[in-house]
Amino acid sequence: MVVALVLATLLWTVGGVAIWVNRQMLDTKNWVQTSDALLRDQKIRVALSTALLDRLYQSAPVETQIRESLPPQLQGLAAPAAAAVRQAASRRVPEILGTDAALAAWEKANEGAHKAFLKIVEGDVAAGGEVNLNVEQLLTQVAAGTGLPSGVVDKLPPQYRQLQIMRSDQLKAGQDAVQILRYLPWILLPLAALLFAAAIWLSVDRRRAVVWCAACAIFAGVAILAIRRLGGDAVVNALADAPNVRPAAKAALLIGTSLLTDVAWGSIVLGALVALGAWLFGPGRWATSARRAASPTFRDRPAAARVALGIALLLLVIWGPVPWTRNPIWILVFTAAAFVWLEVLRRRTLVAFPDVPAGELMRGMRGGLPKRRASTDDDQLDRLERLADLRTRGVLDEAEYEREKAAVLSPSN
User: Fold this and answer.
1) How many domains is the chain partitioned into structurally?
2) Of 174, 200, 234, which marks where a domain is finished?
3) Which of 320, 338, 362 is the last residue in one of the domains?
4) Tens of pLDDT along 116-132?
5) Which residues are within 8 A (CB) of 297 and not within 5 positions of it... i.e. 6 or more apart?
6) Count of alpha carbons within 13 Å of 388, Cβ hemisphere only?
7) Per residue in 304-357, pLDDT tens?
């Protein structure tokens, strides 16, 4: 069982990272949304404004146009004037890049770049093909917003109107890996689920095995968060040598891996819910008291219990804390599993506590849960006889019988 749990946790963790790669790198919509979030960050806008101004000033059209607009005797001041214009523009450009027009141009440029990236990944582009981010519209808006001479962008060489992201020959080694990543989540996650199921099946105490599986899912989520933190620090340290670039690089990394954080918290939330559900089946004092208090509702008003669960699930969907709570397919799967869990819990509760009178919950709250109750020998004997009968009929296995018996004989009962 331990081997199955370890392998399942490893596959679940790698599968979670593979989901992020698929959603972030291979989905154009997510790519564009992430790019939009990048440009909305002030640190990134400042870094991008510097890159765009470098593009405008790398060739000579700005200085040339300023020189042409000056009288002959003042044309020697063209270079200082161009530098002064740039210094003033550097304070204005980040604000320009935050406008709706700039965001729209940025989204369009990134959408085109990502489509080109996918063509390279899929092998539809010959060697030497490039992925370029077309920034001509952004340059035009920057020039107009900072008072640079009109037509300055039109006079820039083509290579200055775009930012090269990568070449197709740089992805040769990674093309096969990317193709594998497309299908990796659909392989690893089902395998992990099968291993979790095998661990539960092989365990003598299956309820405890379910708790362990939930703990493994929580551990996998925490591991993904740790990978994001440690890997992110390494990437920033490797790529951002200049101190003034580090804030923008760190912000870009946090935004670019936000989907990975969603995957991690999705695993943690799922594990926590499964652990809670398994705990309620347990022989512990609090779990036993909760089942006892719920037994009148389960017996007399089962529809109310189902409605309450439905409302709880609806609130979870409305809240939508993690991606799978916003996915219709996963919502249906989880809802079906939750109602199956409720029915199993209801039946076992009624078997163990068939005669608890209504109002048990309020009495327990007034007395404090779990509440110590004086039990007569006859009451204990009746409950032990019911447990023995359930074991004989195969409803309870030996381990479950011993746990319930210990709960009946405990001093708290």
Assistant:
1) 3
2) 174
3) 362
4) 778 777 766 545 566 77
5) 304, 305
6) 6
7) 999 999 999 999 999 988 888 999 999 999 999 999 999 999 999 998 888 888
| 117 found inside a domain | yes
Phi, psi (deg, nearest 5) at residue 372: -75, 125
Give the pTM: 0.73
Shared-domain flag, residues 46 and 138: yes
Query: In terms of domains, do 33 and 161 share one?
Result: yes
Question: For residues 336 and 349, what is the distance between their CA atoms, to the nearest angstrom?
Answer: 20
- Which domain does 407 fall in, by range? 372-413
Q: How far apart are the first and last CA of the chain?
A: 34
48 near 97, Cβ under 8 Å? yes
What is the CA angle 27-30-33, rounded to 5?
150
Return the percentage of the chain with pLDDT > 70, whole number. 78
How many whole angstroms separate alpha carbon 259 and alpha carbon 189?
Answer: 17
Q: Is residue 202 part of a domain?
A: no
Matching residue, tokens 């009148």: 296
118 lies in some domain: yes
Give the distance from CA 197 to its chain's centroid.
24
Instruction: With H, G, I as helix, E, B as strand and everything else as coil, classify residue 129.
Output: coil
Secondary structure (3-state) at 281: coil
Position 272, amino acid: A
Q: Please indicate, yes or no, whether residues 356 and 401 belong to a single structural domain of this protein.
A: no
Same domain, 31 and 165: yes
Are residues 347 and 378 located together in one domain of the fold? no
Q: Give, in order, the Cα–Cα distances in Å from 152 to each of 55, 62, 139, 147, 159.
A: 11, 6, 9, 11, 14
Classify the C-alpha dihedral 135-138-144-147 as positive or negative.
negative
Same-domain status, 311 and 394: no
Q: How many CB atoms lie within 10 A of CB 271?
A: 22
